[in-house]
Amino acid sequence: MTPEEYKKNVETLKKWAYAYYIEDNPLVTDDVYDKLYHEVEAFEKEHLELVDPTSPTQRVGAPIKDGFHKAKHLSRMWSMEDVFNDVEFEQWFERIDKQYPGERYYVEPKFDGASLNLIYNNGALQQAITRGDGVEGEDVTNNARTINSIPLEIAHEGLIEIRGEVLMTIEEFERINKERLERGEQLFANPRNAAAGSLRQLDPKITAARNLIFQPWGVGVNDLDFEYLSDLMAYVYDLGFRKPPIRRVCKSVKEIEEIYRELGEMRNKLNVMLDGMVVKVDRIALEEILGYTVKYPRWMVAYKFPAVEKQTCIKDVILQVGRTGVITPVAVLEPVNIEGAVVERATLNNFDYIEKLDIRIGDMVTLIRSGDVIPKIIKVLKEFRTGKEKPIERPTHCPVCGSEVLDEGALIKCQNLSCPARVVNAIIYYASKSCMNIDGLGEKIVEQLYEAGLVKEIEDLYHLKMEDLLKLEGFKERKAKKLLDAIEASKGRECWRFVNGLGIEHIGEVASKKICEAFGLDFIDATKEQLLSLDGFGEEMAESYLEFMRVNREKVQRLMEIVKPSAPKEEQIIQSAFTGKTVVLTGTMKEPRAKIKELLEHLGAHVTNSVSKKTDYVIYGEDAGSKYDKAKSLGVPLLSEEEFWKELAKEGITP
Question: Annotated catalytic sites, by residue?
Answer without folding.
Answer: 110
